[in-house]
User: Fold this.
Amino acid sequence: MNVDLGIWSKLTKVVVGLVVLAFLLLIGMCYLPLIHQNERMRAEKLRLEMELEKETEKSKQLKTEIEALRNDPKTIERLTREKLGYARPDETVVRFEPATTNAPAR
Assistant:
């Protein structure tokens, strides 16, 4: 036996639909800050991974330089000549100074 309630049946369906929609919106609003926080954390993780990669490369380069200084006499000789200005007895050292500019006084 079906009883036709007219407009009340339709209004009840609309109200139930609106309550379900409001509940879904409430859940969405509760999780929206977590979604934004997750995006920020992923970006930070990516930045830190790139920084870690750069620092790892720098570490490898420094280890190579240290190994060269420990084991390669030519590297030590080159650095001694460049940094300290040493030369062999039969060599002449020529030093170039940076050009000076005549900047107008203010």
The mean pLDDT is 89. Helices lie at 7-71, 73-84. The CA atoms of residues 34 and 46 lie 18 Å apart.
